[in-house]
UniProtKB/TrEMBL annotation:
<feature type="domain" description="Carbohydrate kinase FGGY N-terminal">
    <location>
        <begin position="17"/>
        <end position="243"/>
    </location>
</feature>
<keyword id="KW-0808">Transferase</keyword>
<protein>
    <submittedName>
        <fullName>ATPase</fullName>
    </submittedName>
</protein>
<dbReference type="InterPro" id="IPR018485">
    <property type="entry name" value="FGGY_C"/>
</dbReference>
<dbReference type="InterPro" id="IPR050406">
    <property type="entry name" value="FGGY_Carb_Kinase"/>
</dbReference>
<keyword id="KW-0418">Kinase</keyword>
<dbReference type="GO" id="GO:0016301">
    <property type="term" value="F:kinase activity"/>
</dbReference>
<feature type="domain" description="Carbohydrate kinase FGGY C-terminal">
    <location>
        <begin position="278"/>
        <end position="475"/>
    </location>
</feature>
<keyword id="KW-0119">Carbohydrate metabolism</keyword>
<dbReference type="InterPro" id="IPR018484">
    <property type="entry name" value="FGGY_N"/>
</dbReference>
<dbReference type="InterPro" id="IPR043129">
    <property type="entry name" value="ATPase_NBD"/>
</dbReference>
<dbReference type="Pfam" id="PF02782">
    <property type="entry name" value="FGGY_C"/>
</dbReference>
<dbReference type="GO" id="GO:0042732">
    <property type="term" value="P:D-xylose metabolic process"/>
</dbReference>
<keyword id="KW-0859">Xylose metabolism</keyword>
<dbReference type="Pfam" id="PF00370">
    <property type="entry name" value="FGGY_N"/>
</dbReference>
<comment type="similarity">
    <text>Belongs to the FGGY kinase family.</text>
</comment>
Length: 538
C-alpha cells in the first residue's frame, strides 16, 4: 500500500494520533499515522503575546481561537492530501510553553491575566525560595509567581483554588482532569526524583513560610503529576467542541499527560536518557541535559527539571532566542519586496543564514543582543535589542548575520559553563527548531558556541507538536499492550520505534569557529554593561 493510502486508512480507522503545541509565536498541530516517526499532516496558527501593565500575557480567548484555527488548518491539510475527514483519533496530546502563572478560583474563573514564563517580575520571591529550598528557583517558575503575588499582597491570592500551566489548562478543559506530565510539573515546583511527584519536604517548607493564612496547602492547589505513558483522561463532549466547533470530532479520544515544550523537545530529539541532551531554539532558547547524578551545588544558571518519564535534567533556559533574528529577517524581506523582488519568508531566512557563513569567525567585531525581554542568566530585568560596533569593526551583511546568530547562542553558552564546572558528561547533543531548517548554518555555529558536536535529525523542524504526538502514541502503545511504562520505557519506545530509521546529521565544531566565537563571547560578556545602560536610559 502506498504511503498516502496507508495514512488515509489510519485516519479513517481512527488510529492517527494528534499532537498540539502552543508555542510562543505559533500554535502547531501535527498528525502521525501508524508509524509515529512520520508526520502525515500538519496545521498552524500564528499568535503573539501582548505586553500589558508591564507583563507579558495571552488572553484565554486567543488560546481557544488559536487552537481551533490550528486544528481546522490540520483538517484542511488532511483533506488536501488524502481526501478524507477525521472524526476521531487514536490519542491526543497537548503541550505548551512551560512555567508561568494561571490561577483560578473555585468556580474555575481566571483570577488575573495569564503571566507567562517571559515575565521577570518575581525576583524577590525567586531569591527567597531558592534560599528556603536550597535549590535554584528561577523567576519564571509557577511557585515563584505565586510567592511574589503573596509578597505583594495581591487581592486575588486568597481566592486561588487551582494553579496550572498553559498545557495543564488546555488539557483540563478538554478532559475535565487537573493533571500534568511530570516534566511540565517540574517547572511549577521541584520534583522528588524518588517519587516522581512534588517534593513533600519542600512543600512543607513553603506552607510553613507562607505569610498569607488564607492560602490553603500548596499541594491542594497544584495539578496531579503523571509520568509518560499514563492514562490522563478522555476527550469530553465539551472538549471536542472546543477543538472542533463544527461538531465533526467525536468525544472519547484518550489523552496522554500534558507536557511542557522542554519535555516535547527532548522527545523530538530522542534525548531522554542519561548523558544525552538537546537544544531547543524558538522565542526562547534552552538546553536540556539528562543527569546521571544529582548536581553537587545549586547554580543560578541551572534549573533542575525532569524528562517526561521523571528523570532529572539540568536545564539552561534563556528568555531570548530567535525572535530578534526573525525581526531582522522581516526587515530584509521587506527590502526585497520594496526592491521589486519579493521572497518567501523561508527563502529570506535561507539567504541571510547562508550569508552568515561568509562573515568573519568573530563576526568582524560586531556585537548583537537579542534581548526583547529580561534575561536572568545575565541579570538583566528587561530587554533592549542592540547592535553595537566599534568604528574599526567590519560591517557587512555576513558579519551582521553571523553576529545575530552568535547572539542567539550567547547567553546559552554562558549558562552552559555551570555544567562544565559540574563535570557533566555528554554523549550527544541534539538541536531542533526552525532556525536549523537551513542545513549546516545555525547547527555549525551552535557547535562552535558549545564546543561540542551537534546532531540535527531530519524531523528537527517538526518540534514539539510532533514530540507530544509521539508521547500520545507512547501512551496508546502502553495501554494497548496492557503493560506499563516500567516495562516499555519511553527511551526504549523512542529508540526502537520512533528513531529506528531516523536520518541524523552531525556537525563537529570547526576549530576556527570555536576561536572566533570565544572572541565574540568575550566581547559579549564585556558589552553587557552597554545592554544594562540601555535598559536604564531607554
Amino acid at each position: 500500500m502506498e504511503p498516502a493510502a496507508r495514512a488515509a486508512a489510519a485516519i479513517l480507522a481512527g488510529r492517527a494520533v494528534l499532537g498540539i503545541e502552543l508555542g510562543s509565536t505559533r500554535i502547531k498541530a501535527c498528525l502521525i499515522g501508524d508509524d509515529p516517526a512520520v508526520p502525515i499532516a500538519s496545521g498552524g496558527h500564528d499568535w503573539e503575546n501582548v505586553f500589558v501593565d508591564r507583563l507579558f500575557t495571552y488572553a484565554l480567548e486567543d488560546v481557544w481561537a488559536g487552537i481551533q484555527a490550528a486544528y481546522a488548518d490540520l483538517v484542511a491539510d488532511v483533506r488536501r492530501r488524502y481526501d478524507v475527514q477525521p472524526t476521531t483519533f487514536g490519542a491526543i496530546g497537548v503541550s505548551a510553553m512551560m512555567h508561568g502563572y494561571l490561577a483560578f478560583d473555585d468556580s474555575g474563573d481566571l483570577l488575573v491575566p495569564f503571566r507567562t514564563w517571559r515575565n521577570t517580575s518575581t525576583g524577590r520571591a525567586a531569591a527567597q525560595l531558592s534560599e528556603l529550598f536550597g535549590v535554584n528557583i528561577p523567576l519564571r517558575w509557577s511557585v515563584a509567581h505565586l510567592r511574589q503575588a503573596m509578597l505583594d499582597e495581591e487581592p486575588h491570592v486568597g481566592d486561588v483554588a487551582f494553579l496550572t500551566t498553559l498545557a495543564g489548562y488546555v488539557h483540563w478543559k478538554l478532559t475535565g482532569r487537573k493533571v500534568l506530565g511530570v516534566g511540565d510539573a517540574s517547572g511549577m515546583f521541584p520534583i522528588d526524583p524518588t517519587t516522581r511527584d512534588y517534593d513533600d519536604e519542600l512543600l512543607a517548607r513553603f506552607d510553613a513560610s507562607a505569610s498569607n493564612p488564607s492560602v490553603p496547602p500548596l499541594r491542594s492547589l497544584l495539578p496531579g503529576v503523571l509520568t509518560a505513558g499514563a492514562a490522563a483522561g478522555e476527550l469530553t463532549a465539551e472538549g471536542a467542541t472546543l477543538l472542533d466547533p463544527s461538531g465533526t470530532l467525536l468525544p472519547g479520544v484518550p489523552l496522554c499527560p500534558p507536557e511542557g515544550d522542554a519535555g516535547t523537545g527532548m522527545v523530538a530529539n530522542n534525548a531522554v536518557s542519561p548523558r544525552t541532551g538537546n537544544v531547543s531554539a524558538g522565542t526562547s532558547i534552552f538546553a536540556m541535559v539528562v543527569l546521571e547524578r544529582a548536581l553537587e551545588h545549586p547554580h543560578r544558571e541551572l534549573d533542575v527539571v525532569t524528562t517526561p518519564a521523571g528523570d532529572p535534567v539540568a536545564m539552561v533556559h534563556c528568555n531570548n532566542g530567535a525572535s530578534e533574528l526573525a525581526e531582522w529577517a522581516g526587515l530584509f524581506g521587506r527590502f526585497a519586496a520594496a526592491a521589486g523582488t519579493p521572497l518567501d519568508p523561508d527563502r529570506v531566512f535561507e539567504v541571510l543564514l547562508r550569508e552568515a557563513l561568509s562573515g568573519d569567525p568573530d563576526a568582524g567585531g560586531l556585537l548583537a543582543y537579542n534581548y526583547l525581554a529580561g534575561e536572568p542568566i545575565t541579570a538583566t530585568d528587561e530587554g533592549r535589542p542592540l547592535v553595537v560596533r566599534t568604528p574599526d569593526s567590519r560591517l557587512s551583511l555576513g558579519n551582521l548575520m553571523r553576529a545575530q546568530l552568535y547572539g542567539v547562542f550567547g547567553t546559552l553558552s554562558l549558562g552552559m559553563r555551570a555544567l562544565v564546572d559540574e563535570k557533566v558528561e555528554l554523549e550527544r547533543m541534539h538541536a531542533h527548531g526552525g532556525v536549523f531548517r537551513t542545513a549546516g548554518v545555525a547547527q555549525r555555529f551552535l557547535a562552535a558556541a558549545l564546543d561540542a558536536p551537534i546532531a540535527v535529525a531530519d524531523t528537527a523542524a517538526e518540534g514539539g507538536a510532533w514530540g507530544i504526538a509521539a508521547l500520545a502514541a507512547y501512551a496508546r502503545r502502553v495501554a494497548a499492550s496492557e503493560s506499563d511504562s516500567a516495562q516499555l520505557s519511553l527511551a526504549r519506545f523512542l529508540d526502537e520505534t520512533v528513531f529506528r530509521d531516523a536520518s541524523v546529521q552531525v556537525v563537529a565544531p570547526d576549530p576556527v569557529d570555536v576561536v572566533g566565537f570565544a572572541a565574540y563571547l568575550d566581547r559579549y560578556r564585556d558589552g553587557l554593561a552597554v545592554e544594562r545602560a540601555a535598559i536604564d536610559a531607554l
